[in-house]
């Protein structure tokens, strides 16, 4: 499985916003955005380019890719599926990214970051409708039941993540039972329910439609 293995704090600094790639650390004073809120590199402090047109579209695409932890090929495939699905392409794209199993595990609080959630899925700790699913890109559907496998409910990583994120509210489109490590997909997420995502998906649509 291809994935980004480099330093992640520099990705947040490049996009000048928190992408929440390091779990708990992102909520502390150690966060790179809190300490060094300028682009990475030798000339980061001095670099203040005016970004317009294609540059804005590219930055928005990069931000979305990094936020959800997908690579270029995966992101392009999702956009293609969104473009041939009935409805608004940008909304379809965000819905598909949100319904990825690794993102759902993160939203449920069983992982403190999407990277950790992806690892939990890959290691076979998650079941969907009673069957083990170790594919992070699996897209959940309404009425799907997602659970932490019985043998994994005492896993210190999963238990620690659940306790750490206990204060975080669950999305309206997911019904979660934290005590029993179980959740149900209630509906397809609507874009207006995802206000925490600071993305302008229309710029991404314009970029790919050139």
SSE string:
HHHHHHHEEEHEEH
General shape: globular
Mean pLDDT: 84
Which class best fits the helix and strand makeup? alpha+beta
Strand proportion: 5-15%
Main sheet? 5 strands, antiparallel
Instruction: For the record, give the distance between the C-alpha atoms at the N and C termini, rounded to a whole number.
Output: 30 Å
By DSSP (H or I, 4+ residues per run), the number of helices equals: 9
Helix content: 25-40%
Spans with pLDDT under 50 lasting ≥5 residues? Answer: none
Strand order across the largest sheet: 2-1-3-5-4
Radius of gyration: 18 Å
Number of strands: 5
Detailed description of the structure:
The protein is an alpha+beta fold and 210 residues long. It has helices spanning 9-15, 32-35, 54-68, 72-83, 89-98, 101-108, 114-122, 156-164, 201-208; strands spanning 126-128, 131-132, 145-148, 174-177, 182-185.
Task: Give keywords.
210 residues, alpha+beta, 39% helix, globular
In brief:
The protein has helices spanning 9-15, 32-35, 54-68, 72-83, 89-98, 101-108, 114-122, 156-164, 201-208, and strands spanning 126-128, 131-132, 145-148, 174-177, 182-185.
List the helices and strands and how they pair.
Elements: H1 9-15, H2 32-35, H3 54-68, H4 72-83, H5 89-98, H6 101-108, H7 114-122, E1 126-128, E2 131-132, E3 145-148, H8 156-164, E4 174-177, E5 182-185, H9 201-208
Antiparallel strand pairs: 1-2, 1-3, 3-5, 4-5
Helix pairs in contact: 3-9, 4-5, 5-9, 6-7
